[in-house]
Design a protein that fits this description.
Layout: E1 36-46, E2 63-73, H1 74-79, E3 82-87, H2 106-112, E4 117-120, H3 138-154, E5 158-159, E6 169-175, H4 177-189, E7 195-198, H5 207-221, E8 232-233, H6 240-244, H7 250-255, E9 262-263, H8 264-280, E10 288-293, H9 303-310, E11 317-322, H10 335-348
Parallel strand pairs: 3-4, 3-6, 6-7, 7-10, 10-11
Antiparallel strand pairs: 1-2, 1-5, 2-4, 8-9
Helix pairs in contact: 3-4, 4-8, 5-8
């Protein structure tokens, strides 16, 4: 059994002096939801890696379909001024941004404020095509994200039964490793209008994250932990409550979807992606928003400040702390702080 020595550099911490903070009641006023639409979207992509992020196993180069939803005001979806492509974390699907939990549906809240969100299931997750567990890594994920960004700009995708919109601006955002993917895409391809990093901190992972990363790698190097599905394993399956929740109510905890298995190619290659991020983060030249929970066991404080200080090429980095939030703030009591931060940042940057 081999576990790369670089694994000691796994995740990162997340909290600093937030520029936007406050109780749940601080949520910005939102218009009615009657004009909000949810439309299926799909992209035909190739599982290739044209980045400089090393992957132990090569991407297979095959064509796959990534599926998700466009969620936003009907007129804004048609107008094509701007959209944000959202990438979920390990153990999730795009449903993280579209939770059927009252008061915790991020994409709906953003739509009420005029923004268009595109929440996809990454390859190997949810409704998107399955891939061999070792044939995907963070370099290939960034490449696939780049293909989707380009398709959103050109209209080369399938939007329900209607005509695909060409979006003038595309922002990228990701939760946890989704934020890592958004970083890589931005400094490799320079085609996103801005990066919204949700709880990704590179080198500042806490002891909890390192322990879970080692355990996930142990299971992956043994072939995975799913019957009938080789080279997939579920990250932190033994400590879901600590991973997911801090201030979430019992009702939210009960309605949170079950954990999804993760492709081992991503879990096993995480150290190489962190190494690339350590070297290249300063090459991101667009506005950046960072949000972290102050009760995150994966990237504990002062991870957010450490990340902010490393986006040295960005014209402006906005750093927001969410009180009482763990690694997934959408589930938590002060989730409106995150909505306010994202709305303000997108409005300031043409999103």
């Amino acid at each position: 059994m081999r576990i790369p020595s670089l694994l000691a550099a796994t995740v990162a911490a997340v909290t600093a002096a937030g520029l936007l903070s406050g109780p749940a009641s601080a949520a910005a006023a939102a218009p009615a939801t009657s004009n909000v639409v949810k439309i299926p979207i799909s992209f035909t992509v190739k599982n290739t890696n044209h980045t400089d992020v090393y992957c132990e196993y090569p991407a297979d180069g095959k064509s796959y379909t990534v599926r998700g939803l466009v969620i936003g005001p009907k007129k804004a979806v048609s107008a094509g001024k701007a959209a944000t492509l959202y990438l979920h974390a390990v153990t999730w699907t795009g449903d993280y941004f579209n939770l059927p939990i009252a008061g915790h549906n991020y994409a709906e809240e953003m739509a009420k404020r005029g923004h268009v969100s595109i929440a996809v299931d990454r390859l190997g997750y949810g409704k998107s095509d399955a891939v061999p567990g070792l044939s995907t890594c963070f370099g290939s994920e960034a490449d696939v994200t780049h293909q989707m960004v380009q398709d959103l700009k050109s209209g080369n995708y399938t939007l329900g039964t209607g005509k695909a919109t060409k979006f003038a601006k595309v922002f990228t955002s990701g939760s946890s490793v989704g934020g890592l993917i958004a970083n890589i895409e931005a400094y490799m391809f320079h085609d996103t209008a801005g990066v919204f990093n949700q709880s990704w901190g590179d080198f500042s992972a806490g002891p909890y994250a390192l322990q879970e990363a080692f355990d996930a790698n142990r299971r992956c190097y043994a072939g995975g932990d799913l019957t009938g599905r080789a080279d997939y394993a579920t990250f932190a399956a033994d400590s879901r409550d600590k991973f997911y929740f801090a201030s979430a109510t019992p009702a939210v905890r009960a309605k949170t979807p079950k954990m999804q298995p993760d492709p081992c190619g991503q879990l096993m290659n995480l150290p190489f992606a962190i190494g690339a991020d350590m070297q290249r983060l300063g090459d991101i030249t667009v506005p950046v928003l960072i949000t972290f929970g102050d009760a995150d066991p994966v990237f504990p404080p002062p991870s957010a400040q450490q990340m902010q200080d490393r986006y040295i090429g960005s014209p402006k980095v906005t750093n927001v702390t969410i009180p009482g939030a763990s690694h997934y703030p959408i589930l938590e009591a002060n989730f409106p702080v995150m909505v306010n931060a994202a709305h303000t940042w997108l409005a300031q940057n043409g999103g």
